[in-house]
Every structure is written in C-alpha cells, then in structure tokens.
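Table S4 entry, Cyclopropane-fatty-acyl-phospholipid synthase.
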Amino acid sequence: MKHMLAALEARLAALPVPMAVELPSGQRIGPASWQVLVVLRAPEAYLALAQGQIGSLGAAIVEGWVEVHGSMRDVMAAALGLLQTDPVRGTASWWSQVMARARSMALHTLERDAQQVQFHYDLSDDFYALWLDPRRVYSCAYYREPQMSLAQAQEAKLEHICRKLDLHPGERLLDVGCGWGGLIIWAAQHHGVQAKGITLSRNQFNHVRHLIETLGLQGRVQVELCDYRQLSDAPYDKLASVGMFEHVGQANLPEYFQTVYRLLRPGALALIHGITAGGTRNRQLGAGMGDFIDRYIFPGGELVHVSTLLQTMAEAGLEMVDTENLRPHYARTLWTWSDALEAQLDAAQRILAVQTDTERSGRALRAYRLYLAGCAMGFEQGWMGLHQMLAIRPSGEIQTGSLRGAQSDYAFQRDYMYPKG
C-alpha cells in the first residue's frame, strides 16, 4: 500500500495543477495548497484514480462515492494529466465489429430511439435554458468573429447553415432533429422558406409549437413529433440535420442516408452536421469516458469517423460537395455552456429537484458538470471532431446547374457561403 501511495503522490506532483487526494481513512496526499481536491468516500474509487480511468472516476463522482472541489477547468486539466492511455486509440477486431453492429441494431429501434432521445432532451427545459443561448441552440456555435458572444455565435451558425444550403424564398426546408426550433425559425424569418422540423423529444415539440404560435409563423413553419424513418412527404428542396446522426447508430447509418436521399428532390442539397470520432477505429472514447457518456448523458449514442460517414453517404447515392471541421468552435461553445452552468449551480439544483428527488437531481447535475467540461476538453484535444458535410442528390441531368455537369443547385464554388464585407 505504501508503494501505491508513493506512486500516486509522484503522479500528483507531475500534474499541471496542484491536486490533493483525501483517502477514506482521512489521510491526505498531495500539496497543502491545492486547486483541485479529490475526496475518496469508497476504496473502489482509488483504483480508478490510480489507473487514470477518468470516466470511471467520473461515474464515482456522479454516484457520490467521490467529491471533487475546484473549478471545472482545473479539474479537467488534472484529469488530462492523470490519463495513462490515448482515449482514441483502438483496434477493431472482426469479432468486436460484429458485436458492436449487433448492439447498435438492438439499441436503435423506433421505440428505443424515442426513449433514448427523451432521456436526454426531456430532462428539463428550464435546466437547459440556464446555460444555453436564448434560442436554445444545443449544438456547436460558429465564432465567425473572435469577440462574439454565445448568442451571436449561435446565430452565426444558423446563418452559416442557411448560406451553405443557399436557401431561397418559398423553398421547402426539412430539419431532421430540430431541437428547440432555432434553425427552422431562423430560416423562415430570414430566408422566407417553408420550414418543417421533426423531433422525438416531447418537450422540444411542445416548445417549438408554442414558438410558432407566439411568433405568428403558422403556415410557414411546422413541427412534428416523429422519427425520420416515418416521414413520407417528400420531396424537399433543402434538408438539414444538426446533431442528429450521433443518435442514429452506426448500424442504421445506411438507412439514415438513404432516407435523406429519398426525401430530397433531384438536384437538392443536404447539410449534415454532427460530432465525429477522432480515431478511425475506436468505437467510443477510452479510459471509461465513452461508458460514462452512454450511462449518464446519451444512451445509445455512437460516434464514427468522418471517413465512415462520407463513405456511407456516397453509398446512399449522395455526393459530398463540401466538408468543414468546426472542432475548436465546439470546444469554445462547451466551455461557455460549462461556465454558465457553474455560475448557477444552486438554481440548477432547484430546477432539477422539481423533476425528481434530491438524490437523483444531484446525480444529474454532477453528471452534466462533468459532461460539459469533459467534452470541452475532448474537443480541444482532438478526441472528437465536429463536421459539417454538404451533399447533393445528383439529378442525372448534365445540363442542370450553374456549370455543366453540376447536376444540382450547388454552385461548385464557396463565395456564396460567406457574407461580403
């Protein structure tokens, strides 16, 4: 035991921030003047700490077996220093691939997808409103200018998507996984489209319906509570899907992109935006982090490398015409969300306690604190990416488009995407 404690003390001394550990016996290891203090309430948590299994340590924090004191930024700096393995390094054997596909298929039926989406997004609208921007855009912001606030960067992201899709008045736009309605409202108000959004979250559905009535957008914007596989009112001129394919499951990605293809008219554009894996072979983040996310935040969520997405997209008949990685933008977005939540912990606890008992609300709050800060760190480190992929459904008509062979509405140049001046 003395050897283990000495090894831990040496590791603590090498961390980028001063960190101390209090053992269940009350003995404290590390500097007297700390920025991060980890209090172990159960012996099992010591092993996760010693092995650098920060996801498992996070689970122990959520369950109340470990207490952590210090700012979330300092906590994540210490967690990064404790890691002993590369969390994106993975080797997928043929058997592990078979098992992963079987698990993916089982997790992504119509019924289970609805349950998994509602587990996350129906936690509490008031809780999300504490730390999201006023439009409740729950995806990567676009900091077009460094000095932008979160609200400005989210509006810039909405406009960035609309410009990439080259929206025109009267066009039919479908948003697959519309969240709290930010994109369809923006597109209708600023680009004059007929916008429709779909979601599996009852809270989001009710919120968007109320927004449509409040803003007087009936007849221009509509929302449905349904699965993307149930849509039948094609064709659409433009399609967006933001932060959605992470919930689809790798086994269902072919059907997802085939559905996108089916819903578009020939020559139409689709903008697919979402989180991608940083590694080409890892099925989830290592060091227990993927298990943490699956258990406490996004059950059934699956990340794949952008190359896998582009291959599956192409096999469905869609042609990728532009891809952009906004990874550092998501790191900044997540740190902004994290800072906003950290500034309102008491209010967050009260809001969550209304939904459930004190113990469960405490677990949820601890999970989200770690999730937001941990993901911010993950995007900074390149463990995940954030890609926007613009694709067309080729019309098959060589003469269609601004250039011979374009076979679509896409201009095959990027100038139109960016505001002048």
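The mean pLDDT is 89.
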